[in-house]
């Protein structure tokens, strides 16, 4: 098992390095001067040269890349040109909204998907199965930003149960903060829950056809006992893999949903930084999102090895 972890760690590190190189090349080396983009094409040459020196663009690319990666390694993300504050301070403030929003949406999606998928598989080819598959197909077809607009119209404008947007802050209390994140989380979770429900149903139906399930039934175990003791655990293996991939979709989907609900999260920061041509903020935000997605998939690999009885230390 230690060899398995070492291999996955090596893959994690190599993936992060490759990702950082791509981000750096796209943001700072491809044609286009970041200083000129910030100041505009009509800016005086002296101002452009001064800004290039301030941003460190007058140094060789390799030196800039190593300085950037070295800074990230010790928690130094550089200075925002627009806000004139450390980039990590900006990101930290916005993560207090985006990360809870993503985790809340992920929890909603997992609970709803497992319930729907298990229910559909247990009632294969019956009315319950057809209803769940129809609902999941509708859920997959709905864009999360459009669903967010519908939720605002129904529950904020129509019923007045929620605010139409904004975030009160965690210092105002846990419930007001969670209430502000509830509608955005639902709009994010619906599509992912629909996808995961279909995966859960298919995985369970596949496991139900295995010989060990028929053997368990032949030994006298009830259908319910076989379902929960044997089928569900083995069916969770592909479900967990898909769940790790979905975290990335939720995190990137939150960028759009935050715009709909006027949430001052990481998505708003990225949009503002792109509009203001704040290269340092954009570069570090993209790298952080990549790190979170890659890290979650590494954790999924570890969980996969822990729950799969077929994976022995010699096999991995």
TrEMBL record:
It is a multi-pass membrane protein. Its main location: membrane. It holds the Pfam family BPD_transp_1. It is found in: Cell membrane. Keywords: Cell membrane, Membrane, Transmembrane, Transmembrane helix, Transport. The chain crosses the membrane at residues 12-30, 97-122, 143-162, 174-199, 231-257, 286-307. InterPro entries: BPD_transp_1_N, MetI-like, MetI-like_sf. The keyword Cell membrane applies. Residues 95-304 form the ABC transmembrane type-1 domain. Belongs to the binding-protein-dependent transport system permease family. This is ABC transporter permease. It comes from Marinibaculum pumilum.
């Amino acid at each position: 098992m230690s060899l398995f972890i070492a291999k996955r760690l090596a893959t994690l590190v190599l993936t992060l390095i490759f990702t950082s190189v791509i981000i750096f090349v796209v943001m700072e080396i491809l044609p286009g001067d970041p200083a000129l983009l910030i100041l505009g094409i009509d800016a005086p040459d002296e101002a452009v040269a001064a800004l290039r020196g301030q941003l460190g663009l007058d140094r060789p690319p390799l030196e800039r890349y190593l300085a950037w990666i070295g800074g990230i390694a010790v928690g130094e993300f550089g200075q925002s040109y627009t806000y004139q504050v450390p980039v990590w301070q900006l990101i930290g403030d916005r993560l207090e909204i985006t990360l809870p929003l993503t985790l809340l949406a992920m929890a909603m999606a997992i609970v709803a998907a497992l319930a729907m998928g298990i229910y559909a598989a247990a009632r294969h080819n019956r009315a319950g199965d057809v209803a769940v598959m129809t609902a999941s197909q509708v859920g997959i077809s709905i864009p999360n930003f459009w669903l967010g607009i519908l939720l605002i119209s129904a529950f904020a404008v129509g019923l007045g149960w929620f605010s139409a947007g904004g975030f009160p802050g965690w210092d105002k209390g846990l419930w007001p903060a969670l209430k502000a994140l509830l509608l955005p989380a639902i709009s994010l979770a619906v599509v992912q829950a629909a996808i995961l429900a279909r995966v859960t149903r298919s995985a369970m139906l596949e496991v139900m056809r295995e010989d060990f399930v028929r053997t368990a039934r032949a030994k006298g175990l009830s259908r319910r006992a076989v379902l929960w003791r044997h089928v569900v655990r083995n069916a969770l293996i592909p479900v967990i893999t898909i769940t790790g991939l979905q975290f990335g979709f939720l995190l990137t989907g939150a960028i759009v949903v935050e715009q709909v609900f006027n949430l001052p999260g990481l998505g708003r920061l990225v949009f503002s930084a792109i509009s203001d041509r704040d290269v340092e903020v954009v570069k570090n935000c993209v790298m952080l999102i990549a790190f979170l997605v890659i890290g979650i998939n590494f954790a999924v690999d570890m969980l996969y090895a822990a729950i799969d009885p077929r994976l022995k230390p010699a096999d991995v």
